[in-house]
Specification:
Number of helices: 0
Helix content: under 10%
Order of helices and strands: EEEEEEEEEEEEEEE
Number of strands: 15
Strand order of the largest sheet: 2-4-6-8-10
Structural class: mainly beta
Radius of gyration: 15 Å
Shape: globular
């Protein structure tokens, strides 16, 4: 654990953020990911419970499994058009997150990508062909989901425990 780290500005020379690079940095409130980064590794910011917002720069193509898992203070995430893969449980248990937009170029959204995001109210998925298992499970306050009309499959338990859902639009 890195209990005292509160902010980090990753230099432009860094092209990828590795597996568990900043996991368990529970005092980390802000991070600047460089423009040259192409991937955020599995669990890179897992359990960074004080992290409040993340702007992922254009050029990042992959957000790894559990990349932001249990970032309980995370209220805002900007995912750029360059991202093609949002892996399993990437934003799971981010209980302060209220909205998420998945860009059109995303071809893969992993299982449980926002599992347990209890306060998320709106999700827009512009890309991807498959909604994987447990993608929205436990999103208690989820009211509206907009999904591309090109969707080909909705897997098991995708909307399980979404007790507030009012509208799913396929457009």
């Amino acid at each position: 654990q890195c209990e005292r780290l509160t902010s980090v500005e990753i230099p432009e020379s860094v092209t990828s953020i590795g597996k568990s690079a900043f996991s368990w940095c529970d005092s980390l409130t802000s991070v600047e990911i460089p423009e040259g980064a192409s991937s955020i590794g599995d669990g890179a910011f897992k359990y960074c419970t004080s992290l409040t917002s993340v702007e992922i720069p254009e050029g990042v193509t992959s957000i790894g499994n559990n990349a932001f898992y249990y970032c309980t203070s995370l209220t805002s995430v900007v995912i750029p058009e360059s991202v093609t893969h949002v892996c399993e449980f990437s934003f799971a248990e981010c209980v302060s997150l209220e909205e998420l937009i998945i860009p059109e170029n995303v071809s893969h959204v992993g299982s449980g990508f926002i599992y347990g995001c209890k306060n998320i109210k709106r999700v827009i998925i512009k890309g991807t062909a498959i909604i994987h298992a447990e993608s929205f499970k436990g999103c208690d306050k989820l009211e509206t989901v907009a999904i591309t009309k090109n969707i080909t499959a909705i897997k098991a338990n995708s909307f399980c425990e979404c007790i507030s859902i009012k509208n799913i639009n396929f457009s």
